[in-house]
Records
---
Amino acid sequence: VNTVRELLDPATNMRVGFTNLRNMLELFDGDVRLAVIAYNRGDVAVQRALRRGRYPENGYAEKVLGGRAHGGRRYDGPGRVPRRTASAAPDTAGR
């Protein structure tokens, strides 16, 4: 993509967005929740939070994976990290 005009083309925008999301899925070993958060916040911010022992959730993943975005049912497909309490962070060993 070379120009803003190209990026505003719906087909180009979707191609670039899907490529970015696929890259985030690969980076985070198929963890859909982390990939969606990184898509929104950037992979560097997510990796930094994980290194510091923090969970990088910012509300975006819930908007994308939550019930309102999926006809009343939460996304529970492959790679979905089980819902945790706000005080519990997921196991991030090896990241």
---
Amino acid sequence: MKASVIIPTRNRAEVLSVALKSLTLQGLAKEVFEVVVVDNGSTDATEEVADAYAKQLQLTYVSAPEPGLHVGRHAGLNRARSDILMFADDDIEALPSWVEAVVDTFKDPGVALVGGNNYPGFEQPPPAWLACWWERPVYKGRAMGSLSILDFGDGVFDISPGYVWGCNFSIRRDVLLRAGGFHPDGVPKERLRYRGDGETHVSDVVSASGMRAVFNSAASVRHQVSRSRMTKAYFEQRGFAQGISDSFTLIRRCGGAAIPLSQQVRRKLAPLRSVFGSKWRSLVAAGDSVEQERLDVERAMSVAYWKGYEFHRREVLADSELLKWVLQESYL
């Protein structure tokens, strides 16, 4: 078995079907890779969709009903038979070269992590402010972490582990185990206080250890961007969630929650207001309405980020059991 594709999913049977269809079209023979679909508590037709592809793929269906993306990922890790683990979101569509390119890249024993392009599959044409934001140059091309979309062009080259994102995240089993697995992620709204920093923790371990992360454009996927994710409200939600994740990371690094919340947040928000205010005035003067709208979304996202950061720090300070959850050694 050359690779194990692991897809956690919850109540998204229709998009899961698209992902599984793309795996039937891989250039690598189905006999040499497996697919593990982890049902993270679905109430729709997820199991039926998985069953429908069982004859076309070496597919295993696993039920892991406890909420949390990390739960699904770890259930897939435990069931997978290969030492090359290809984690993907249920709303991707893999290029036909995806599995083979990942396997080929891992032939170099010095490679710990592999990623590729995450091309946007916009459900509808994006609003002008979002299209403008997406076109801004980042590193070797374009990237928007809030939507997990990335286009660094063609080629094979070393890359920062921070640019290998969860929708297209391939890693050696021993490296993942050495990192202690994934941190909490993808929790339901009512459990946001239990959110962590997901695969970012694993990427940080790879980076700190000096192990190689490699970008291979043949190991690319198309990542669906629904109309609901192309809104100001969605970016505010993402900002709030990222604030929680960064609070989680900092608390683990310092071993506790020591910084006074209101003072911390006021200190961070003050320069933001000043910077955004000056940018806004210059854009108004220039008559650039598209950039004004993009800046408005960015400003709202930044404010939501610090609200999420404060929310999490406050929750941890008030609940010793939550602090224990944040500080526990492993979530495997």
